[in-house]
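Q: Could you fold this chain for me?
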Amino acid sequence: MGNTTLLVLDIQNAIVDIFDKSITDPYLKRLAAAISAARQENINIIHVVTGFRPYYPECHTLNASFSGIISTGKFQEGSKDVQVHPTVAPLRHEPVIMKRRVSAFMGTELDMILRSSKTDHLVIAGIATSGAILSTIRQAQDLDFKLTVLRDLCLDRDEEVHRVLIDKVFGRKMDVFNADEWIEKISGEKTA
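A: Sure. Below is the predicted structure, expressed as structure tokens.
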């Protein structure tokens, strides 16, 4: 049996700031609790953020997901936009991977890091359910990872899309837990 890694997707300042604080404050509190529990149980944690080089050489004008970013000047490497939100800041030994596409796997070293740590089970949290979460999960399935999705630690601007993905897509193919259920599960595995 391999290892489990908690994959925290796009919990960076520019993305968290899109949402109202009435949504993000309780969300970040739940996420911080899950990260803390993972650390206590020696579960690997990898943070993934979206960012681009100056002048956006990675953003093709035909890519509807990213072409609009160029005019905003946001999401540039080294800027506050791409820093992991301070509420869930990584520890020094926790990798932070910069992605330049929607999936955390596309064009990054994520798969290599996961294989090097003998990870075979990914636990997924982050923003947005219809973006990074969906794209990363689909690619992880193709790479034969076991998957768990943390329902209340995935967030999307469209609540209905979030619900459909969690309940009707992810829920049929992988484990889906709320954060408190997952924390209880990983804490109980040690004593079971």
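A (continued): The two ends are 17 Å apart (CA to CA).
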